[in-house]
Design brief:
By secondary structure, this protein is mainly α. It has 8 helices and no strands. Helix 3 crosses helix 4 and helix 5 crosses helix 7.
Length: 207
Amino acid sequence: MRESDKARDAPAPYPGYDVLAKWRTPSFDDRTREVLAARLNEAPPRRFLTPDELSLLDAVVERLAPPLPGLEPRLLALWIDDRLHQNIGEGFRGPGAPPLQQCWRLGLAGVDAEARRRFETAFADLAPDARDETLRAIEHGDIDAALWGGLDAASFFAGTLSKTVAGLAYAHPSAWSDIGFGGPASPRGYVRLGFDARDPWEARERR
């Protein structure tokens, strides 16, 4: 069982908390509501990846993304595609690493090639356990380097693929409720910042 499957069965750390219940309170202003509405209701169109690449990414994200109600892996895949279309990254890359867009194309091709090497089947067509086995091998660098076009597979998995999926997942309000985050600090702000202190409008953690 993958870790996110275990997490799905674990008790909620902030039972009953819904950050969006603050929608019409002083915690959110009009600009915050505008940004949240777009994040909740708008899915960007595919503009960079090919249909096959997007289906592959969708299958990868399904195994890596935290299990959050209301957050579909397809949305995360489309958000990644949108960032690639706009060529938005972190503003740096490691020595010898290819440019962002090329890195993702090489990385996705490598994931699929590893799946075919191990199971003679495309990654998107694998059963969940086989998908996990493939991703675990890539994570640990147990790969055929000839399939990766010079890309460091383990670095791509940890520093690009997993990091991007987690970062985008936890930008979604479903994740905020899951971790007890109260949303943007504008306009109300946070006042009680000491250890083990909380403002009245913040989530109360299960003890």
